[in-house]
Structures are given as C-alpha cells and as structure tokens.
Design brief:
It is a single chain. By secondary structure, the chain is of the alpha/beta class. The protein contains 8 helices and 7 strands. It has a 7-stranded parallel sheet with strand order 3-2-1-4-5-6-7, sandwiched between helices. Helix 3 links the parallel strand 4 and strand 5. The chain is globular, with a radius of gyration of 17 Å. About 45% of the residues are buried. InterPro entries: KR_dom, NAD(P)-bd_dom_sf, SDR, SDR_fam. Keywords: Oxidoreductase. This is Beta-ketoacyl-ACP reductase.
Length: about 240
C-alpha cells in the first residue's frame, strides 16, 4: 500500500490474526485488533469486543475511529471451532460456530461499511478456510460457516463495488499455529500427504497475501477466493 491506512483485524490476539496484525504494523499502517482476551502485537491498539454482539462491535469501532481514524481495511478473522460428528452435534454446537464465524463477519463488515462508503474506499478481507469448499468430516458447522463467507463477500462486492470498496475471501489450508501443534505426529503426517507442497504454511505466508489484497496493487480484485493452502484445495 502506498499510503498508511487504518486497519482492523478481528481476533488479532493469537495465531493467524496476530501475524496479520504484525504484518500490517511492519508496513507502517495504523492497526487495531479486537480480542475477547489477550492483546495484539506490539504497535497495535487492542480493543475488547465480541463479534457475536453488535453493540460491542459498534463500541469497538467508535473507540478505534476516535484513536486512529475511520477504519479503511477490515480483516474478519475471529473464529471458533466446535468439531463433532453430525449425529452428535447439538443445535448450539452448530449455531454458536455460525454466529461467531459467519454472523460475526457480517456484523463487522456492516459496521465498517459506514465509514468506507463515506470515504469511497474500503478493503474487506474475510478469513475462510480450505474446508469451506472442500468440506471436512466432523466440521459440518465450521465448514458451513466458512463457505458462507464467500456468498457474503460476493454480495458485498455487487452492492459496494462501485464505491471503491473491494471484498475478498482468503482460504488458508493447514497453518503452523497452536491448533495444528495439538495434532498427533500421525495426524500431521496424514495431512501432509494430501498437501502437494508437503508442508504446513507459516502464519506470515497467510498474512502477506492479506496485506497484498488490502493494497492498491489489488484494487481491481473483488469477490475472489484466494487459496493459501499449498495446493490442498486449489480454490475448490
């Protein structure tokens, strides 16, 4: 990006979200993160917020706008998993995951769009997953929530595209984070067999694709799903 922007990363206190916030800071942007607990990386403003609560999101944006200016780039990264086979999955296992991962992104994007429409500029990046398109046994809730982000981004593109606002989806595969570290060596080896690149990604590799999508270089890309998965899903 040629100019410093005000960036918000939801769930920026750990894992991929933390790396995304770090990368934007390194490029000289004004960066805020939302977190339910913990803090974002050095150089960021951490705001307590819960994406399942619209009032909490509104308050977070209001304090970020007062401190850093209107949000120009939003990365909807906050998400949860509650893996369970379909037959054992409760209604709340399903709705809680969808409410955080999909409805949470909707709330954040809706609030961000106010300032973006006024500025006639905006970059919206939704963090999906390779399983949003491939599916995954035991992840009916997570997979459904992540594929829903694609419809969200594409509809936002059609609504707001003429106002200098882009909305894109990034679909990471297996990333070296706390979550993959918990897998057994056997599980890790099994997953690696299905990845043409034969390795997991670093969080930085995902973050750098996001900073590029938010840059002026990607101004004519909108409604796209960009896989960062070493060839695991190949965008399908």
């Amino acid at each position: 990006m040629t100019v410093a922007r005000t960036v918000l990363v939801t769930g920026g206190n750990r894992g991929i979200g933390f790396a995304i916030a770090e990368e934007f800071v390194a490029l000289g942007h004004r960066v805020a993160v939302t977190a339910r607990s913990g803090d974002g990386p050095a150089g960021t403003m951490t705001v307590r917020a819960d994406v399942t609560d619209a009032t909490s999101i509104d308050a977070a944006f209001t304090s970020i706008e007062a401190e850093l200016g209107p949000v120009e780039v939003v990365v909807a990264n906050a998400g949860i998993t509650r893996d369970m086979l379909l037959m054992r999955m409760s209604d709340s296992d399903f709705t809680d995951v969808v409410d955080t991962n999909l409805s949470g992104a909707f709330r954040v994007v809706k609030r961000a769009s106010k300032g973006m429409l006024k500025a006639r500029f905006g970059r919206i990046v939704l963090v999906s997953s390779v399983v949003g398109l491939l599916g995954s046994a035991g992840q009916v809730n997570y997979s459904a929530s992540k594929s829903g982000l694609i419809g969200l981004a594409r509809s936002v593109t059609r609504e707001l595209g003429s106002r200098g606002i882009t909305a894109n989806v990034i679909a990471p595969g297996f990333i070296e984070t706390d979550m993959t570290a918990e897998l057994s060596e056997t599980q890790q080896a099994d997953y690696l067999k299905s990845i043409p690149a034969a390795r997991f990604a670093t969080p930085q590799e995902v973050a750098r694709v996001i900073t590029w999508l938010a840059s002026d270089d990607a101004a004519y890309i909108s409604g796209a799903v960009i896989p960062v998965d070493g060839g695991l899903g190949m965008g399908h």
